[in-house]
Design goal:
The chain is an all-alpha fold. It has 16 helices and no strands.
Length: 432
């Protein structure tokens, strides 16, 4: 039986980029507290945070592809599926519970979060065991491009179309009352498949001793993608007057202008994927070129610090969710978070997240992120249907809640009160 990868075989660039993505998730989430002071600043902070999601997906796919290339067996696929089901079931509860004060009352557990998307995508592992790197890259790019273009040009009208558009493409023309439920699942799948292909490619090159050449190619390819996306986005401002002369609501000109807009993430556009995904690919390439034999190199030390968070990305994400989305409102100092204090609080949460990740790694606690689907276990065969059924039940219940949302919102499942300190003068809970 093949063994899983140990810590010595982990990819430093992948873990480092995943750790960097964790920081930018914090940038994106803390922008919520800037809305009342400066909507423009909040928008810019959220746009900077866009670096996180595509690269979290890309690195998760890359790690999955690398593991499958290292050991293309049913046991490896089962371990990945086990981790995916854990993210879908346990991760969903841990992450959405932190949203109780920032979403309409009673709707927190219905929201789709990034761990849900990654969990569902990891469950595809058995279908990807023998797919070649080139095929995965082409299929991933095609799925992302076609689904993005279709989502931008499609305007669902029936109830079933509205539901599918929200769940698969993040299309929301106002028919979905719970905006957080929308998710660009198909474009996310395209990004994930590209990551799986890159993971296989990196494994093949490492085995053949060509990793240095591949790192250069990745750095160049990612940089070219970023520059191309920027060029197209700048060109958008020059072609916009021409297109506006033919502009009508929801016509082809609208689709073109949105497609070349870097900052449009729901659904993600082609330039969004090229720019933010290109940053991740370039970083993997540049970090792969670092002379890791010299541990005193500043960039290597920084990469290793980021990798501490990346190796414990799940618990880092959960910790950050609670520190940023829950604690300030629960304690009552959310109104203290202004453009002057938000950066300081972001630094504090980042430091806490790092030490949580470091402790998690020292305890080797990733081994606890499992539902028990261990290869060779006598219970594995019986537990697979059980946990898959549980995940499907969660999805079914959430879909039913979404379908019935017009009748149930806002009082549904109101187990947690709304924000106890809605932008009131900051104070510690229970104290004046």
């Amino acid at each position: 039986m093949t063994r899983p990868l140990d810590d010595n075989e982990r990819l430093l660039p992948v873990d480092a980029v995943r750790g960097i993505a964790m920081f930018f998730i914090g940038v994106s989430h803390i922008s919520f507290y800037l809305i009342n002071d400066s909507g423009i600043l909040a928008t810019h902070a959220r746009a900077i945070g866009f670096v996180a999601t595509p690269n979290f997906l890309l690195m998760s796919g890359l790690a999955c592809g690398y593991q499958l290339a290292h050991a293309p067996t049913t046991g490896t696929a089962l371990r990945i599926v086990d981790r995916g089901l854990f993210a879908l079931l346990v991760g969903h509860l841990l992450v959405t519970a932190s949203l109780v004060y920032v979403v309409p009352p009673g709707t927190a557990f219905e929201h789709i979060v990034i761990t849900d998307s990654i969990g569902a995508l990891l469950c595809m592992a058995p279908l990807l065991k023998h797919a070649s790197a080139q095929r995965l890259l082409w299929v991933g790019g095609t799925v992302f491009s076609l689904s993005s273009l279709f989502a931008l040009s499609w305007h669902p009208t029936t109830g079933a179309q509205i539901l599918l558009g929200a769940l698969l493409l993040s299309v929301n023309d106002g028919g979905m009352p719970d905006i957080g439920w929308t998710s660009p699942t198909l474009p996310y799948m395209g990004i994930f498949l590209v990551g799986v292909g890159l993971g296989r490619l990196i494994y093949d090159c490492r085995r053949e001793g060509r990793v240095a050449a591949l790192s250069v190619r990745l750095a160049v390819a990612g940089s070219v993608a970023v520059v191309a996306a920027l060029a197209v986005n700048v060109g958008r401002h020059f072609v916009k007057p021409l297109l506006m002369s033919h502009f009508a609501p929801k016509n082809w000109a609208d689709v073109v202008l949105t497609t070349i807009n870097i900052r449009h993430d729901a659904p993600p556009t082609l330039t969004y994927g090229l720019f933010y995904g290109g940053i991740g690919v370039a970083l993997v390439g540049f970090l792969g070129m670092l002379p890791r034999r010299d541990p005193d190199t500043f960039l290597v030390r920084m990469a290793r610090l980021a990798a501490v968070v990346g190796q414990a990305s799940f618990v880092s994400y959960v910790a950050q969710q609670w520190l940023i989305d829950f604690v300030p409102i629960w304690v009552g100092f959310d109104s203290w978070l202004t453009p002057a204090t938000c950066p300081l609080y972001l630094v504090v949460t980042t430091v806490i997240m790092f030490w949580v990740a470091r402790a998690w790694g020292s305890w080797q606690a990733n081994r606890y992120m499992t539902l028990g689907l261990k290869p060779g276990s006598q219970w594995a065969d019986s537990r697979v249907p059980l946990f898959v059924g549980a995940a499907l039940l969660v999805v079914f219940l959430n879909v039913m809640a979404l379908v019935n949302a017009p009748r149930l919102t806002p009082g549904k499942l109101a187990l947690v009160p709304p924000n106890p300190y809605p932008w009131a003068p900051a104070k510690v809970a229970g104290l004046q």
